[in-house]
Amino acid sequence: MASGELLAKRETSGRLTCTRVDGFGRNIEARMQSKVTGTLSTTAKEFLPKVYAASSDFMKLLSDKCILDPVQQYSYDLFKSSAGNSYLTSSTLSYFNDTDIGQLQVLDVVDCVGQKKMQRSRQGVDPASSSTDKHVTWKCSPWDNFEYQPGPSEGTTSVFDKLGRVLNQTRPSHNDSAINVVSSLQYSIDGGTVLETVTGPDSNASATNVVLWSAPRTYISINGKEHIISATNQGALTSEFTCDVAGNLLSASDPQAKRETRKYNSLGQLRILDNVYQRMQDPAKPSEQLSMTYIYNGTGQLEKTINANEGAIMFNGDSKGRPISETGFDGRVLRYQYDDAGKERLSSMTVYPSGEAKQLETKLSFEYDERARLSSRALTFADGVEYEIVFEYDWQGQVMTKSYPNGATKLNKYIGSLLSYSEVYAEGPGGQRETWLDGTFECNNATEKPNKITFGKADGQTDFQHTFEYDLQSYTLSHNLDQLGQSPSDTKPLVQKTYIYNGADQLAQNLDGMSNVAKKYNYEGKRLKNSQIGDANMKNYVYDSSGNILTKADTTIS
């Protein structure tokens, strides 16, 4: 079009995307090519404007025979709240299929200075527009107060300095919203060193304001990017790093002075990597053989790698930089083949036990649909037996069906982007369908994680049900598993778990309601210090300065 905006793009994989824009150049709709005409389908000729610039071959593709299915629609509006404040709204409507429940809409509300004030999303049919606020697997309440400000117990409150740097952040703890977790940052050396301190509750210590983490970091700016050069962890143990003028890591030294060194070629590609762990040698008696050596050809493609045991792997690539073959130090060859129709897609990977002149060991073949998504994957063995898995997707790339070599098929159904039902079945004699296992998923929280999963056999006699509870930070607070009976009184509990976290987001207690036994975990910084199951003896964990575990309870590790 005259504005020069991109309207159609065909990728090297063969995927075609067409876009509509408004007078400001903003996207208002995007569609992708499809093979089957649906209720919401249109053609490229109808979708695109009458006048646009494209090559003659591309224009032939964008004809009335090119079917397009909707992917996303965008809309923009100006909204005035009941308080008289104006907001800009941006809506993205994603289509997963041509049904009402095959939609996901995300509405962003922005104020006049560009700050996002609110985001609302809906899966499937908007429950706020119907007589009830409960959908099959989604429940929410409509927001009408655009001046809403979350309270201290409802989110994270940040304090900034005059340079816009975060000084501290306060959020509610996972298990008690009345107890806060505070993460504070102190800057020194003009911001080059940052000290982070996290204070919060520790249920095992029966305290609500414990220093759980305190660690300084020192940074250096190279080409506008921050690179860490020093990090001090628990026990005042410091690791140091050096970089070259391009920001490439040259060396890393742990608190035990064990170093990893790296060297690069003029293109910035890693040429040599050396450290004591990969060589497994005494640092006082270094091996002449480096941990890893990388050799490249004149075009910058990797040709060879050599490890500390002098094991070499050879690589061959084509003119597009794609791997063609890899030869291992044992003589086995991995061969790559690509689509010969001009689409840059991997079509097969073949392993030969000893050179390509021998019979193949295994072969993995790939086929793709019109949107360059994997439609089938076939594994072939030396005896010629083939096992194939077939995939089908919705418009957003979610797997709808997955067919297995044993004749079983897994069927998935969604409400928008949320999985609502899954079934494993097989076609019996005469085309009769036999369900092996099925499950339903219910989600009624902002985390988009399932609150309830019910699964079992089709006869309904052996159904099981998982129930989960989460906090507003998506951490699991409880998990129950019940075997369902014919009536609620017949329900048999199998698992009852409650999880308690400390202020550093670490699991502090795992309570088993069935046995009434608690597993407790204590930490030193970010390392597990000890654990205890019920009234049993405490298991202590000892580490060296590098963080390698030396002792685990009564077990010594070297």
Automatic annotation (TrEMBL):
Residues 279-554 form the Teneurin-like YD-shell domain. InterPro entries: T6SS_VgrG/RHS, TEN-like_YD-shell. Keywords: Repeat. Gene3D superfamilies: RHS repeat-associated core. This is Teneurin-like YD-shell domain-containing protein. It comes from Fusarium odoratissimum (strain NRRL 54006). The lineage of its organism: Eukaryota, Fungi, Dikarya, Ascomycota, Pezizomycotina.
